[in-house]
Amino acid sequence: MTNRSSSFLQIVGLIVTCCLALSAAALAADNPSYTQIGRNITIGPNDKVGDVTCLACNIRVRGQVIRDVTVVGGSIEIEDGGQVGGDLTSVAGSIRLDQTAKIAGDVTAVGGNLHRDPQASVGGDVTALSGRGWLALIVVVPLIFLGLLVAFVIWGIRRISRPAPTTAVARG
Length: 172
Description:
Elements: H1 3-30, E1 34-37, E2 41-43, E3 48-49, E4 52-55, E5 59-61, E6 64-65, E7 69-72, E8 76-78, E9 83-84, E10 88-91, E11 95-97, E12 102-103, E13 107-110, E14 114-116, E15 121-122, E16 126-129, H2 132-161
């Protein structure tokens, strides 16, 4: 490949990268995403946002969320015509769907309850793994696996670093 064609490819790559970055920035400006830790999020009736993510807090949607709504250790409420264009996921918390709620994707509640009005619209699958047993299973099994992996690594390092046994040589 000549220097001229290599330079041309670099310029084309730079232009494509700039166009992608600018289009992503424009999309983010039109539909901001929210992420909070320990502070509740409320999407008002006239609000239109991207993703909404919350850790140890609650999410209340009365407006429109373009993509996903995710909460860990809190609850999600979709009411008064609230819409979600993606998935709705709650871990260690509950989900409540009002009769006017519209969810385009899947609804998943793990370790919490799902309260769904029969008239609420869900385009994907609905999964509810109620109870704290599921939460314990999700946390404990990976910890056991990680503990076994660490024990195996320590065993391997000790085995490799063990000095070779010496044999006695008879002199005589």
